[in-house]
Amino acid sequence: MSDEFRYRRRIEFCETDAAGIAHFSAFFQYMEQAEHALLRHVGTNVVYEDDEGLISWPRVSASCDYAGSVRFEDVMEVVVHVARLGAKSVTYAFDFHSNDEIVASGKMTTVCCRIQHTSPPESIAIPSWLVEQLRTFEAT
Q: Torsions phi, psi of 91, nearest 5?
């Protein structure tokens, strides 16, 4: 059985449309915020430095399907699982809950990359210590 990572947040006014409903594009920010919170939870960050330099996680795919809506001041919980853990990439699955209902589901794939300011990012193997941490959240 895998662990779930849960991230709670309140819908802010600036994230809503004229009808007071969270704009569809805000869900991509919510996925990113939940991913960052998960990475902090396992002892790292979306950008960190090791002995060889900077590592970060560019996104290569993101999608979201909507089943309901959330409004300004609603509290939403984002449940995160690791849907796929590759040698160099992670695909996260997100379920957005509000008032005991799933209002959206999303996926995002990121690639572990060495970041150098003089050349494009280079994909690298996910550090073994981080693979072990992320396996805890793999969907079963």
A: -110, 120
- Could you tell me how many residues make up the chain? 140
Residue 78, token pair as written in the block:
């984002």
Could you tell me the sign of the dihedral formed by the alpha carbons of 29, 32, 33, 34, in that order? positive
- Walk along the chain (140 residues) and give the pLDDT tens digit of each residue: 578 899 999 999 999 999 999 999 999 999 999 999 999 999 999 999 989 889 999 999 999 999 999 999 999 999 999 999 999 999 999 999 999 999 999 999 999 999 988 889 999 999 999 999 999 999 87
CATH number of the domain where residue 126 is located: 3.10.129.10
Please give the distance of CA 132 from its chain centroid, rounded to a whole number: 18
Q: Are 22 and 29 in contact (CB under 8 A)?
A: no
Show Cβ contacts of residue 20 under 8 Å, excluding neighbours closer than 6 positions.
71, 72
Query: Structural domain of residue 72, as residue ranges?
Result: 5-135
